[in-house]
Amino acid sequence: MKKWIVFLLFCLQLLVIVGCSEEKATSIVDEKVKIGVMLSDVGLGDQSFSDSAYSGLEQARDELGILFDYRELTQVGDYETGLTQLVEQGNDLIIGLGFMVEEDLKKVAQEYPEQQFVIVDSVIDLPNVTSVTFKEHEGSFLIGAIAGMRTESNVVGFIGGTDTPLIRKFLNGYNQGIKATNPNAKVISRFAGDFGDDKLGASLTAELIQEGADYVYPSAGFTGVGVIHKAQEEGIYSFGVDSDQYFLGEKTVVTSMLKNIDVAMLKISKELHENGELAGNDLVLGLNEDGVDLAPVRVLSLTSAEKNQLDKLKSDIKSGVITVTE
Prior knowledge:
Elements: H1 2-31, E1 34-38, H2 49-64, E2 67-71, H3 73-76, H4 79-88, E3 93-97, H5 102-111, E4 116-120, E5 129-134, H6 136-150, E6 155-160, H7 165-181, E7 186-191, H8 198-210, E8 215-219, H9 222-234, E9 237-242, E10 253-259, H10 261-275, E11 283-285, E12 292-294, H11 304-319
């Protein structure tokens, strides 16, 4: 009988220990900051926008211990469904990537007024939404400055994913940078109407080459990957966008306009981790805020004079001597 009593007491003690362990594990998870992100239309593997954001959240996970989950458009069929799923998961913050998410995020944010949201690349005027935008025109100015310095044909190209105000910011900055270093150069442009078609990107690049372009700058997501591949195939120079895309064309990609979405993701994660909420102030990130920049210049070598000119232009933008218009 005594043995049975001892055995029962042991079992009860074991159950208490296990229960406490489970409670402790659960509480640790519950205490962590949880972020849900609705990726842009192409999703992971775009080698650009979504991948950069994912990288920033990975860094926040490793450095701050946050938890994050994501949805892709192909999984849910529409942005609203994915956003709603992320809300219902109990995430502390929901992030929508890209201007195409705007309408659905606005709708969901109005349905869940107590939930914190972030929209990247657009502006939503709601008390529970923080907007994050970038000065893409400043980084694109520097890309244009290099193209203007080095073009031999005085014809350079641009391919945009869609003809929207956001993509026009890239083109306008590119134009201004070219004119700053080569007033005689001409810019020809195409808009694909699609961010996910690399074959279309290649076809449009072929058109620009036929018109004499010896440098081409895409702002077109995965469509831009086709631009880079075609440029390398035809022996002209290209530029990457959003992230360092040198590895996509190691004989053609001179540099990339870095749109540091990963920096923005880490900045937001830190604020949420430290304060439990976002202050609600919209973020506008340019050269001064480390929001945009250039990747290392490769493939060709700038002369000392060209490097100095590029550094001076960058410094003048930061100081306000040069204002790059959108």
